[in-house]
Amino acid sequence: MKYKLLDNGLKSIFKKYDIFIIDLWGVIHNGINLHQSAMEVLKNLKINNKEFFLVSNAPRPRDSVANFLKTLKMNEEYFEHIYTSGDAALESLKSKKFGNKFFHIGPPRDFDLFMEFKSNKVINIDESDYLLCTGLFGEHEDNLDYYNSFLKNYINKKLICTNPDLIVYRGNKEEYCAGSVAKVFENLGGEVIYFGKPYPEIYNNCVKGKEKVLAIGDNLNTDIKGANMMNYHCLFILNGIHKNLFASNNNLKLEETLKKFNLNINYYQNQLEW
Fold this sequence. Notes:
Blueprint (H helix, E strand, L loop, with lengths): L3 E2 L13 E5 L12 H12 L3 E6 L5 H10 L10 E3 H10 L7 E4 L24 E4 L10 H8 L6 E4 L5 E4 L2 E4 L1 H10 L4 E3 L5 H5 L8 E5 L2 H10 L3 E5 L12 H12 L5 E3 L5
Parallel strand pairs: 1-13, 2-3, 2-11, 3-4, 5-6, 6-7, 7-10, 11-12, 12-13
Antiparallel strand pairs: 8-9
Protein backbone atom coordinates (compact mmCIF):
# COMPACT_ATOMS: atom_id res chain seq x y z
CA MET A 1 0.00 0.00 0.00
CA LYS A 2 1.31 3.42 -0.92
CA TYR A 3 1.39 5.83 2.02
CA LYS A 4 1.60 9.59 2.07
CA LEU A 5 3.27 12.22 4.23
CA LEU A 6 0.61 14.67 5.41
CA ASP A 7 2.77 17.72 4.79
CA ASN A 8 -0.38 19.88 4.66
CA GLY A 9 -1.64 18.50 7.95
CA LEU A 10 -4.72 16.55 8.99
CA LYS A 11 -6.90 19.38 7.70
CA SER A 12 -6.13 18.18 4.17
CA ILE A 13 -7.94 14.83 4.66
CA PHE A 14 -10.23 15.08 7.71
CA LYS A 15 -13.43 15.56 5.67
CA LYS A 16 -13.09 12.00 4.32
CA TYR A 17 -13.67 10.45 7.76
CA ASP A 18 -16.60 10.17 10.16
CA ILE A 19 -14.76 9.01 13.30
CA PHE A 20 -11.21 9.52 14.54
CA ILE A 21 -9.68 7.06 17.01
CA ILE A 22 -6.70 8.88 18.49
CA ASP A 23 -4.09 7.39 20.79
CA LEU A 24 -3.30 9.36 23.93
CA TRP A 25 0.19 8.50 25.20
CA GLY A 26 2.69 9.20 22.42
CA VAL A 27 0.32 11.23 20.25
CA ILE A 28 -1.48 13.67 22.55
CA HIS A 29 1.12 13.68 25.36
CA ASN A 30 4.42 12.09 26.36
CA GLY A 31 3.59 11.37 30.00
CA ILE A 32 4.92 14.75 31.12
CA ASN A 33 3.61 17.37 28.69
CA LEU A 34 0.76 17.77 26.22
CA HIS A 35 1.76 18.11 22.56
CA GLN A 36 0.28 21.48 21.66
CA SER A 37 0.05 20.71 17.93
CA ALA A 38 -2.07 17.66 18.79
CA MET A 39 -4.30 19.76 21.04
CA GLU A 40 -4.84 22.06 18.07
CA VAL A 41 -6.08 19.01 16.14
CA LEU A 42 -8.64 18.17 18.86
CA LYS A 43 -9.84 21.77 18.90
CA ASN A 44 -10.37 21.77 15.14
CA LEU A 45 -12.10 18.39 15.07
CA LYS A 46 -14.52 19.73 17.67
CA ILE A 47 -15.09 22.96 15.72
CA ASN A 48 -15.91 20.85 12.65
CA ASN A 49 -18.29 18.60 14.63
CA LYS A 50 -16.20 15.49 13.95
CA GLU A 51 -16.61 12.55 16.31
CA PHE A 52 -13.41 11.37 17.96
CA PHE A 53 -12.29 9.05 20.74
CA LEU A 54 -9.13 9.40 22.80
CA VAL A 55 -8.32 5.72 23.13
CA SER A 56 -5.74 4.61 25.63
CA ASN A 57 -4.24 1.29 26.69
CA ALA A 58 -4.19 2.62 30.24
CA PRO A 59 -5.34 -0.18 32.56
CA ARG A 60 -7.54 2.20 34.54
CA PRO A 61 -11.07 3.58 33.94
CA ARG A 62 -11.50 6.83 32.06
CA ASP A 63 -12.05 8.93 35.22
CA SER A 64 -8.60 7.96 36.47
CA VAL A 65 -7.02 8.84 33.12
CA ALA A 66 -8.95 12.14 33.08
CA ASN A 67 -7.53 12.98 36.51
CA PHE A 68 -4.03 12.39 35.16
CA LEU A 69 -4.72 14.57 32.12
CA LYS A 70 -5.89 17.34 34.45
CA THR A 71 -2.36 17.43 35.86
CA LEU A 72 -1.11 18.02 32.31
CA LYS A 73 -3.59 20.94 32.01
CA MET A 74 -5.79 19.35 29.34
CA ASN A 75 -9.09 21.16 28.84
CA GLU A 76 -11.84 19.15 30.53
CA GLU A 77 -14.12 19.47 27.49
CA TYR A 78 -12.15 16.58 25.95
CA PHE A 79 -12.58 14.15 28.86
CA GLU A 80 -15.91 12.80 27.59
CA HIS A 81 -14.06 11.42 24.56
CA ILE A 82 -11.73 9.16 26.60
CA TYR A 83 -12.02 5.38 26.36
CA THR A 84 -9.48 3.01 27.92
CA SER A 85 -8.48 -0.64 27.92
CA GLY A 86 -9.46 -0.55 31.60
CA ASP A 87 -13.01 0.39 30.54
CA ALA A 88 -13.00 -2.46 28.00
CA ALA A 89 -11.88 -4.97 30.64
CA LEU A 90 -14.15 -3.80 33.45
CA GLU A 91 -17.41 -5.37 32.24
CA SER A 92 -15.79 -8.78 31.81
CA LEU A 93 -14.16 -8.56 35.23
CA LYS A 94 -17.43 -7.56 36.91
CA SER A 95 -19.23 -10.48 35.27
CA LYS A 96 -16.74 -12.87 36.95
CA LYS A 97 -16.35 -14.77 33.68
CA PHE A 98 -12.75 -15.55 34.64
CA GLY A 99 -13.60 -16.59 38.20
CA ASN A 100 -14.20 -14.85 41.49
CA LYS A 101 -10.87 -14.28 43.26
CA PHE A 102 -7.92 -12.58 41.60
CA PHE A 103 -4.32 -11.76 42.41
CA HIS A 104 -3.23 -8.30 41.26
CA ILE A 105 0.08 -7.76 39.47
CA GLY A 106 0.73 -4.04 39.17
CA PRO A 107 1.22 -0.80 41.11
CA PRO A 108 -1.24 0.56 43.71
CA ARG A 109 -2.22 3.45 41.39
CA ASP A 110 -4.15 0.90 39.30
CA PHE A 111 -6.49 -0.06 42.16
CA ASP A 112 -9.17 2.18 40.58
CA LEU A 113 -9.82 -0.59 38.06
CA PHE A 114 -11.27 -3.01 40.59
CA MET A 115 -12.55 -0.78 43.40
CA GLU A 116 -16.10 -2.07 42.79
CA PHE A 117 -15.03 -5.64 43.54
CA LYS A 118 -11.93 -5.11 45.68
CA SER A 119 -13.14 -7.73 48.17
CA ASN A 120 -12.33 -10.34 45.47
CA LYS A 121 -8.64 -9.43 45.55
CA VAL A 122 -6.49 -11.98 47.39
CA ILE A 123 -3.04 -11.50 48.89
CA ASN A 124 -1.99 -15.13 48.42
CA ILE A 125 -1.60 -15.95 44.71
CA ASP A 126 -2.32 -19.64 45.39
CA GLU A 127 -5.88 -18.70 46.42
CA SER A 128 -6.66 -16.85 43.17
CA ASP A 129 -8.81 -18.03 40.26
CA TYR A 130 -6.95 -15.78 37.84
CA LEU A 131 -4.17 -13.19 37.65
CA LEU A 132 -5.04 -9.56 36.87
CA CYS A 133 -2.04 -7.75 35.38
CA THR A 134 -2.24 -3.96 35.07
CA GLY A 135 1.52 -3.32 35.15
CA LEU A 136 4.59 -4.11 37.21
CA PHE A 137 5.15 -4.07 40.96
CA GLY A 138 6.86 -0.82 41.96
CA GLU A 139 9.81 -2.60 43.54
CA HIS A 140 10.30 -4.73 40.40
CA GLU A 141 9.41 -2.25 37.66
CA ASP A 142 12.74 -2.59 35.84
CA ASN A 143 13.32 -6.34 36.21
CA LEU A 144 11.39 -8.70 33.92
CA ASP A 145 13.49 -11.65 35.14
CA TYR A 146 11.67 -11.37 38.46
CA TYR A 147 8.35 -12.17 36.75
CA ASN A 148 9.86 -15.17 34.98
CA SER A 149 10.74 -16.67 38.36
CA PHE A 150 7.58 -15.48 40.12
CA LEU A 151 5.05 -16.71 37.54
CA LYS A 152 6.54 -20.00 36.36
CA ASN A 153 4.55 -22.04 38.91
CA TYR A 154 1.21 -20.39 38.01
CA ILE A 155 0.81 -20.99 34.29
CA ASN A 156 -2.27 -23.10 35.05
CA LYS A 157 -4.12 -19.83 35.79
CA LYS A 158 -5.31 -17.34 33.16
CA LEU A 159 -3.60 -13.95 33.15
CA ILE A 160 -5.82 -10.97 32.25
CA CYS A 161 -3.71 -8.18 30.74
CA THR A 162 -5.37 -4.76 30.74
CA ASN A 163 -2.57 -2.97 28.87
CA PRO A 164 -1.05 -4.80 25.87
CA ASP A 165 1.68 -2.15 25.44
CA LEU A 166 5.18 -3.49 26.03
CA ILE A 167 6.79 -0.13 26.86
CA VAL A 168 6.05 3.59 26.98
CA TYR A 169 8.27 6.64 27.16
CA ARG A 170 7.63 9.00 30.06
CA GLY A 171 9.44 11.98 28.60
CA ASN A 172 12.66 10.27 27.44
CA LYS A 173 12.60 7.49 30.05
CA GLU A 174 11.54 4.04 28.88
CA GLU A 175 9.12 2.16 31.17
CA TYR A 176 7.78 -1.39 30.97
CA CYS A 177 4.01 -1.93 30.71
CA ALA A 178 1.73 -4.86 31.55
CA GLY A 179 2.20 -6.29 28.05
CA SER A 180 5.83 -7.08 28.90
CA VAL A 181 4.75 -9.19 31.89
CA ALA A 182 2.12 -10.88 29.71
CA LYS A 183 4.79 -11.83 27.15
CA VAL A 184 6.88 -13.39 29.94
CA PHE A 185 3.80 -15.39 31.01
CA GLU A 186 3.09 -16.53 27.44
CA ASN A 187 6.72 -17.58 26.97
CA LEU A 188 6.37 -19.73 30.08
CA GLY A 189 3.39 -21.46 28.44
CA GLY A 190 0.57 -19.56 30.16
CA GLU A 191 -2.64 -18.25 28.59
CA VAL A 192 -3.14 -14.47 28.37
CA ILE A 193 -6.41 -12.66 27.66
CA TYR A 194 -5.79 -9.11 26.44
CA PHE A 195 -7.96 -6.01 26.60
CA GLY A 196 -7.03 -2.87 24.66
CA LYS A 197 -5.45 -2.11 21.31
CA PRO A 198 -4.99 -4.01 18.99
CA TYR A 199 -7.84 -6.27 20.15
CA PRO A 200 -11.38 -5.71 18.78
CA GLU A 201 -13.40 -5.00 21.97
CA ILE A 202 -11.95 -1.54 22.49
CA TYR A 203 -12.76 -0.53 18.89
CA ASN A 204 -16.23 -2.11 18.84
CA ASN A 205 -17.20 -0.04 21.86
CA CYS A 206 -16.33 3.14 19.94
CA VAL A 207 -17.48 2.37 16.40
CA LYS A 208 -21.03 1.02 16.24
CA GLY A 209 -21.82 1.21 12.54
CA LYS A 210 -20.12 1.35 9.16
CA GLU A 211 -18.62 4.80 9.61
CA LYS A 212 -15.36 5.63 7.86
CA VAL A 213 -12.66 5.61 10.53
CA LEU A 214 -9.18 7.08 10.72
CA ALA A 215 -7.03 5.63 13.51
CA ILE A 216 -4.10 7.78 14.65
CA GLY A 217 -1.27 6.32 16.70
CA ASP A 218 2.45 5.99 17.30
CA ASN A 219 2.69 2.29 18.23
CA LEU A 220 3.00 -0.22 15.40
CA ASN A 221 2.25 -3.20 17.67
CA THR A 222 -1.01 -1.77 19.02
CA ASP A 223 -2.34 1.34 17.21
CA ILE A 224 -1.37 0.42 13.65
CA LYS A 225 -1.82 -3.33 14.01
CA GLY A 226 -5.28 -2.72 15.48
CA ALA A 227 -6.21 -0.39 12.61
CA ASN A 228 -5.08 -3.02 10.10
CA MET A 229 -7.05 -5.76 11.87
CA MET A 230 -10.20 -3.58 11.86
CA ASN A 231 -9.64 -2.44 8.24
CA TYR A 232 -9.46 1.22 9.29
CA HIS A 233 -7.35 3.80 7.51
CA CYS A 234 -4.50 4.94 9.74
CA LEU A 235 -2.12 7.81 10.34
CA PHE A 236 1.22 6.80 11.88
CA ILE A 237 3.04 9.28 14.13
CA LEU A 238 6.83 8.82 13.87
CA ASN A 239 7.93 10.84 16.90
CA GLY A 240 6.44 8.50 19.51
CA ILE A 241 7.33 5.08 20.88
CA HIS A 242 9.44 4.24 17.80
CA LYS A 243 11.11 7.65 17.55
CA ASN A 244 14.63 6.24 17.79
CA LEU A 245 14.03 4.24 14.60
CA PHE A 246 13.23 7.38 12.64
CA ALA A 247 15.88 9.77 13.92
CA SER A 248 17.23 10.10 10.37
CA ASN A 249 16.27 9.06 6.83
CA ASN A 250 12.58 8.70 7.68
CA ASN A 251 11.38 7.41 4.32
CA LEU A 252 13.85 4.52 4.06
CA LYS A 253 13.47 3.51 7.71
CA LEU A 254 9.68 3.69 7.47
CA GLU A 255 9.49 1.39 4.45
CA GLU A 256 11.87 -1.12 6.05
CA THR A 257 10.02 -1.02 9.37
CA LEU A 258 6.56 -1.52 7.85
CA LYS A 259 7.84 -4.55 5.94
CA LYS A 260 9.42 -5.94 9.10
CA PHE A 261 6.16 -5.58 11.05
CA ASN A 262 4.05 -6.66 8.04
CA LEU A 263 1.79 -3.63 8.48
CA ASN A 264 0.23 -1.00 6.22
CA ILE A 265 -0.38 2.69 6.80
CA ASN A 266 -2.17 5.33 4.75
CA TYR A 267 -0.48 8.46 6.09
CA TYR A 268 2.32 9.55 8.37
CA GLN A 269 3.46 12.67 10.22
CA ASN A 270 6.38 13.33 12.53
CA GLN A 271 3.87 14.59 15.10
CA LEU A 272 0.13 15.07 14.92
CA GLU A 273 -0.58 18.44 13.31
CA TRP A 274 -3.67 20.13 11.92
